[in-house]
Amino acid sequence: MWELPVRVFHWVNALCIVVLFATGLYIGNPFVVPAVSEEAHFFFLMGWARYIHFIAAFLFTANLLMRAYWFLKGNRYARTNPLRRAFWRGLVETLKSYLFLKNRKPHYIGHNPLAELSYLIFIGLGSVIMVLTGFVLYFEPQWESAAGGLFSRVAALFGGDSFSVRSWHHLVAWGFALFVPIHVYMAFREDWLSRNATISSIFTGYKYEAARKEKGDEERGGGEGGAGDPAGGSAERRHGAGDRKHPAFR
């Protein structure tokens, strides 16, 4: 189900976000300073924070490019298509269940459309904004270089001046800080309520789904090109011999 590149992306991305946010907090507001004013090389904490931040940023960018490639190359669970009518119909039905407007949540083997939309916004669009604004700030002292000249034009997309670019960078960073705990909570919640190994699947690539009772039932969660219609029919509550194990590679 979750192929190896998807799982590698997830954990590399998680590590980068934690490191980037922690070092970014210090760069924006250095809360540890020497008690006595002295030469910078005696207290190089800011230098190390920036150095680690830059390394994590380059790794974050490379990881994002790899995921973009696998979005096109991977199996049906590695991509989504919000242009399909079924995506938005499923999103509304899923949202109704979270708002307690219906008793049963639509069943998806992969991510449900609401989760996919949140990943597109935060992990997709949010990451692109962070990469672009980050490189604008990185090359700001060297606009005369080739890369600096390129990103000086990108700066116009975010207001053009350093303050506006930095504000975008900070705001989206705090958006990630809001998204991460919600994502972790929802993953544990789904694992607990569905008993389908949601948490362990991001390590192993496997989830467990109860066998369908009705003949001809079809699994359609996360269909080709995006979230499909929820899998029809009722599922057995018993997990064990009747469970199906979905392979990590298809």
From TrEMBL:
Q: Locations of Basic and acidic residues compositional bias?
A: 213-222, 235-250
Query: Record keywords: Kinase included?
Result: no
Return the GO cellular component terms, semicolon-separated. Answer: plasma membrane
Keyword annotations for this protein, in alphabetical order, are:
Cell membrane, Electron transport, Heme, Iron, Membrane, Metal-binding, Transmembrane, Transmembrane helix, Transport
Q: Where are the transmembrane segments?
A: 12-31, 51-72, 117-139, 168-188
Q: How does it sit in the membrane?
A: Multi-pass membrane protein
**Where, per UniProt, does this protein localize?**
Cell membrane
Q: Which InterPro entries match?
A: Cyt_b561_bac/Ni-Hgenase (IPR011577), Di-haem_cyt_TM (IPR016174), Hydrogenase_cytochrome (IPR051542), Ni-dep_Hydgase_cyt-B (IPR000516)
Looking at the record, which segments are called Disordered? 213-250
Task: Report the residue ranges that make up the Cytochrome b561 bacterial/Ni-hydrogenase domain in this protein.
Answer: 2-205
PROSITE patterns the record matches: NI_HGENASE_CYTB_2
**SUPFAM superfamilies (alphabetical):** Transmembrane di-heme cytochromes
| Gene Ontology MF, one | heme binding
The family this protein is said to belong to: Belongs to the HupC/HyaC/HydC family.
Task: Please give the name of this protein.
Answer: Ni/Fe-hydrogenase 1 B-type cytochrome subunit
Give the species this sequence originates from: Planifilum fulgidum
